[in-house]
Specification:
Length: about 130
């Protein structure tokens, strides 16, 4: 939870700072107030936006799976859940970093896939461990 909040604060601050520095805004009222230009094609701002959307698409399911894993007792070993959470946090932070610095592939893809594997691992453990 804390990792997500810190990451959102960092990306939001970067996005706002870059929008101000570049004079790029996304709404007419912002352009009037800040004196910028409404523009949806700034490469850096779009990279930040896509990074943020990718995080939302991956972190929210992980949080749900993590909560289910810890509250259902399916994964009796909380150390395993903790390791999976630490790995997920690390690879998502790396993914964001690789996205923002435009690192060459397969660095970004590998970090993304590692996070997806963490989600699949928790989902598989939940599905196979629940008694219906």
């Amino acid at each position: 939870w804390y990792q997500r909040r810190v990451r959102e604060a960092v990306v939001s601050t970067q996005s706002t700072g870059n929008r101000i520095k570049r004079g790029v805004v996304v709404a007419d009222e912002d352009a009037r107030f800040f004196g910028g230009v409404v523009k949806f094609t700034d490469v850096w701002i779009e990279r930040l936006r896509r990074s943020h959307l990718n995080d939302i698409e991956n972190i929210l399911p992980f949080i749900a799976l993590l909560l289910l894993s810890t509250t259902t007792g399916v994964l009796g070993d909380l150390e395993t859940v903790l390791v999976v959470a630490q790995v997920f946090t690390l690879v998502r932070m790396l993914h964001t970093l690789f996205y923002l610095v435009a690192a060459p592939q397969p660095l970004r893809a590998g970090s993304w896939f590692s996070g997806v594997l963490c989600n699949f691992y928790l989902a598989y453990q939940l599905i196979t461990g629940l008694e219906f």
